[in-house]
Amino acid sequence: MKTFPKPLTAQEERQYLQQYQEGDMEAKKVLIERNLRLVAHVAKKYQGAEEDNDDLISIGTIGLIKAVSTFDPTKNNRLATYAAKCIENELLMMFRMRKKMAKEVSLYDPIGTDKEGNEISLFDIIEGENIDIIEEMELENNVRRLHHLLEEVLDEREKKVIRMRYGVCGAQEMTQREIAKMLGISRSYVSRIEKNALEKLKGQF
Predict the structure, then answer these.
(1) Which of 22, 100, 149, 200 has the fewest Cβ atoms surrounding its Cβ within 10 A?
(2) Tens digit of pLDDT for each residue in 24-76?
(3) Would the pTM count as exceeding 0.70?
(4) Looking at the DSSP assignment, which residues form a beta bridge with residue 110?
(5) Cα angle vertex 80, ends 78, 84, to 5°?
Protein backbone atom coordinates (compact mmCIF):
# COMPACT_ATOMS: atom_id res chain seq x y z
CA MET A 1 0.00 0.00 0.00
CA LYS A 2 1.33 3.43 -0.92
CA THR A 3 2.29 5.62 2.05
CA PHE A 4 2.30 9.41 2.11
CA PRO A 5 4.19 11.96 4.25
CA LYS A 6 2.59 13.11 7.48
CA PRO A 7 0.36 16.20 7.04
CA LEU A 8 1.65 19.56 8.23
CA THR A 9 0.48 21.07 11.51
CA ALA A 10 -1.30 24.42 11.30
CA GLN A 11 1.85 26.18 12.49
CA GLU A 12 4.06 24.37 9.97
CA GLU A 13 1.60 25.16 7.20
CA ARG A 14 1.67 28.88 8.00
CA GLN A 15 5.46 28.81 8.08
CA TYR A 16 5.84 27.11 4.70
CA LEU A 17 3.12 29.27 3.11
CA GLN A 18 4.96 32.40 4.23
CA GLN A 19 8.25 31.05 2.87
CA TYR A 20 6.60 30.19 -0.44
CA GLN A 21 5.09 33.68 -0.69
CA GLU A 22 8.61 35.02 -0.23
CA GLY A 23 9.74 33.00 -3.24
CA ASP A 24 11.01 29.79 -1.63
CA MET A 25 10.26 27.00 -4.15
CA GLU A 26 11.39 24.33 -1.70
CA ALA A 27 8.58 25.45 0.61
CA LYS A 28 6.10 24.96 -2.24
CA LYS A 29 7.46 21.44 -2.77
CA VAL A 30 6.95 20.65 0.92
CA LEU A 31 3.38 22.00 0.85
CA ILE A 32 2.58 19.73 -2.11
CA GLU A 33 4.29 16.60 -0.76
CA ARG A 34 2.77 16.90 2.72
CA ASN A 35 -0.74 17.17 1.26
CA LEU A 36 -0.52 14.12 -1.04
CA ARG A 37 -2.45 12.12 1.57
CA LEU A 38 -5.36 14.49 0.91
CA VAL A 39 -5.19 13.73 -2.83
CA ALA A 40 -5.45 10.01 -2.09
CA HIS A 41 -8.38 10.62 0.26
CA VAL A 42 -10.36 12.62 -2.32
CA ALA A 43 -9.45 10.27 -5.19
CA LYS A 44 -10.71 7.29 -3.18
CA LYS A 45 -14.27 8.61 -3.55
CA TYR A 46 -14.04 8.15 -7.31
CA GLN A 47 -12.18 4.86 -7.42
CA GLY A 48 -14.10 2.14 -9.23
CA ALA A 49 -13.65 -0.90 -11.40
CA GLU A 50 -12.89 1.23 -14.46
CA GLU A 51 -10.64 3.77 -12.73
CA ASP A 52 -6.97 3.18 -11.97
CA ASN A 53 -6.13 4.64 -8.55
CA ASP A 54 -2.73 5.85 -9.73
CA ASP A 55 -4.41 7.71 -12.58
CA LEU A 56 -6.83 9.40 -10.20
CA ILE A 57 -3.98 10.45 -7.91
CA SER A 58 -2.03 11.81 -10.89
CA ILE A 59 -4.96 14.01 -11.94
CA GLY A 60 -5.75 14.97 -8.34
CA THR A 61 -2.14 16.06 -7.82
CA ILE A 62 -2.56 18.61 -10.62
CA GLY A 63 -5.44 20.08 -8.59
CA LEU A 64 -3.25 20.12 -5.48
CA ILE A 65 -0.46 21.97 -7.30
CA LYS A 66 -2.99 24.55 -8.51
CA ALA A 67 -4.32 24.91 -4.97
CA VAL A 68 -0.88 25.58 -3.49
CA SER A 69 -0.13 28.07 -6.27
CA THR A 70 -3.36 30.06 -5.84
CA PHE A 71 -4.12 29.71 -2.11
CA ASP A 72 -4.74 32.99 -0.25
CA PRO A 73 -3.90 32.53 3.47
CA THR A 74 -5.53 35.88 4.33
CA LYS A 75 -8.97 34.28 3.94
CA ASN A 76 -8.45 32.26 7.15
CA ASN A 77 -9.07 28.84 5.58
CA ARG A 78 -6.73 25.93 6.02
CA LEU A 79 -4.93 24.97 2.83
CA ALA A 80 -6.42 21.46 3.04
CA THR A 81 -9.98 22.81 2.83
CA TYR A 82 -9.20 24.83 -0.27
CA ALA A 83 -7.04 22.09 -1.82
CA ALA A 84 -9.75 19.43 -1.40
CA LYS A 85 -12.08 21.52 -3.58
CA CYS A 86 -9.38 22.06 -6.22
CA ILE A 87 -8.51 18.35 -6.28
CA GLU A 88 -12.16 17.38 -6.65
CA ASN A 89 -12.69 19.97 -9.39
CA GLU A 90 -9.73 18.57 -11.34
CA LEU A 91 -11.10 15.03 -11.12
CA LEU A 92 -14.59 16.13 -12.14
CA MET A 93 -13.12 18.07 -15.06
CA MET A 94 -11.41 14.87 -16.24
CA PHE A 95 -14.66 12.90 -15.99
CA ARG A 96 -16.57 15.62 -17.87
CA MET A 97 -13.95 15.62 -20.62
CA ARG A 98 -14.20 11.84 -20.97
CA LYS A 99 -17.99 11.97 -20.98
CA LYS A 100 -18.07 14.64 -23.69
CA MET A 101 -15.61 12.73 -25.85
CA ALA A 102 -17.60 9.52 -25.43
CA LYS A 103 -20.80 11.38 -26.27
CA GLU A 104 -19.23 12.83 -29.41
CA VAL A 105 -18.11 9.41 -30.58
CA SER A 106 -21.43 7.74 -29.83
CA LEU A 107 -23.45 10.45 -31.55
CA TYR A 108 -21.50 10.90 -34.74
CA ASP A 109 -19.75 7.61 -35.49
CA PRO A 110 -21.41 5.57 -38.27
CA ILE A 111 -23.63 2.79 -36.95
CA GLY A 112 -25.12 1.44 -40.18
CA THR A 113 -26.96 2.39 -43.37
CA ASP A 114 -30.53 3.37 -44.22
CA LYS A 115 -32.81 1.75 -46.85
CA GLU A 116 -31.10 3.77 -49.60
CA GLY A 117 -27.66 2.62 -48.51
CA ASN A 118 -26.71 5.99 -46.97
CA GLU A 119 -24.48 5.91 -43.90
CA ILE A 120 -26.30 6.92 -40.69
CA SER A 121 -25.20 7.76 -37.14
CA LEU A 122 -26.95 7.71 -33.79
CA PHE A 123 -27.41 11.47 -34.11
CA ASP A 124 -29.42 10.93 -37.33
CA ILE A 125 -31.74 8.57 -35.47
CA ILE A 126 -32.45 10.75 -32.46
CA GLU A 127 -32.23 14.22 -34.00
CA GLY A 128 -36.03 14.37 -34.24
CA GLU A 129 -36.27 14.12 -30.45
CA ASN A 130 -35.78 16.97 -27.99
CA ILE A 131 -32.05 17.68 -28.41
CA ASP A 132 -30.27 20.92 -27.56
CA ILE A 133 -28.72 21.56 -30.98
CA ILE A 134 -26.73 24.55 -29.72
CA GLU A 135 -25.14 22.37 -27.05
CA GLU A 136 -24.28 19.72 -29.64
CA MET A 137 -22.72 22.31 -31.94
CA GLU A 138 -20.66 23.70 -29.07
CA LEU A 139 -19.52 20.20 -28.15
CA GLU A 140 -18.57 19.42 -31.74
CA ASN A 141 -16.63 22.69 -31.94
CA ASN A 142 -14.77 21.94 -28.69
CA VAL A 143 -13.82 18.46 -29.90
CA ARG A 144 -12.52 19.87 -33.19
CA ARG A 145 -10.55 22.46 -31.25
CA LEU A 146 -9.10 19.79 -28.98
CA HIS A 147 -7.97 17.73 -31.96
CA HIS A 148 -6.36 20.86 -33.44
CA LEU A 149 -4.56 21.67 -30.18
CA LEU A 150 -3.29 18.11 -29.91
CA GLU A 151 -1.46 18.65 -33.20
CA GLU A 152 -0.33 22.22 -32.56
CA VAL A 153 0.64 22.26 -28.88
CA LEU A 154 1.97 18.81 -28.01
CA ASP A 155 5.11 17.01 -29.10
CA GLU A 156 4.88 13.55 -30.67
CA ARG A 157 5.25 11.58 -27.44
CA GLU A 158 2.70 13.74 -25.61
CA LYS A 159 0.22 13.35 -28.49
CA LYS A 160 0.66 9.59 -28.44
CA VAL A 161 0.13 9.36 -24.67
CA ILE A 162 -2.97 11.60 -24.65
CA ARG A 163 -4.55 9.74 -27.57
CA MET A 164 -4.10 6.40 -25.85
CA ARG A 165 -5.04 7.63 -22.36
CA TYR A 166 -8.34 9.21 -23.42
CA GLY A 167 -9.18 7.19 -26.55
CA VAL A 168 -9.23 10.19 -28.92
CA CYS A 169 -8.43 10.38 -32.63
CA GLY A 170 -9.43 6.75 -33.13
CA ALA A 171 -7.09 5.37 -30.43
CA GLN A 172 -8.15 2.79 -27.85
CA GLU A 173 -8.38 4.11 -24.28
CA MET A 174 -5.64 2.63 -22.09
CA THR A 175 -4.33 2.89 -18.53
CA GLN A 176 -0.96 4.43 -17.72
CA ARG A 177 0.45 0.98 -17.04
CA GLU A 178 -0.67 -0.31 -20.44
CA ILE A 179 0.84 2.71 -22.18
CA ALA A 180 4.09 2.34 -20.23
CA LYS A 181 4.36 -1.28 -21.31
CA MET A 182 3.65 -0.42 -24.94
CA LEU A 183 6.17 2.45 -25.05
CA GLY A 184 8.80 0.68 -22.96
CA ILE A 185 8.95 3.38 -20.28
CA SER A 186 7.95 3.59 -16.61
CA ARG A 187 4.38 4.32 -15.50
CA SER A 188 5.61 7.35 -13.54
CA TYR A 189 7.19 8.73 -16.72
CA VAL A 190 3.88 8.24 -18.56
CA SER A 191 2.18 10.10 -15.70
CA ARG A 192 4.61 13.05 -16.04
CA ILE A 193 4.09 13.18 -19.80
CA GLU A 194 0.31 13.13 -19.31
CA LYS A 195 0.40 15.89 -16.67
CA ASN A 196 2.56 18.15 -18.85
CA ALA A 197 0.35 17.55 -21.88
CA LEU A 198 -2.87 18.27 -19.97
CA GLU A 199 -1.38 21.48 -18.56
CA LYS A 200 -0.48 22.60 -22.10
CA LEU A 201 -3.97 21.83 -23.41
CA LYS A 202 -5.75 23.49 -20.48
CA GLY A 203 -3.59 26.57 -20.92
CA GLN A 204 -4.81 26.89 -24.50
CA PHE A 205 -8.51 26.09 -23.93
Answers:
(1) 22
(2) 999 999 999 999 999 999 988 887 646 678 888 899 999 999 999 999 888 86
(3) no
(4) 121
(5) 130
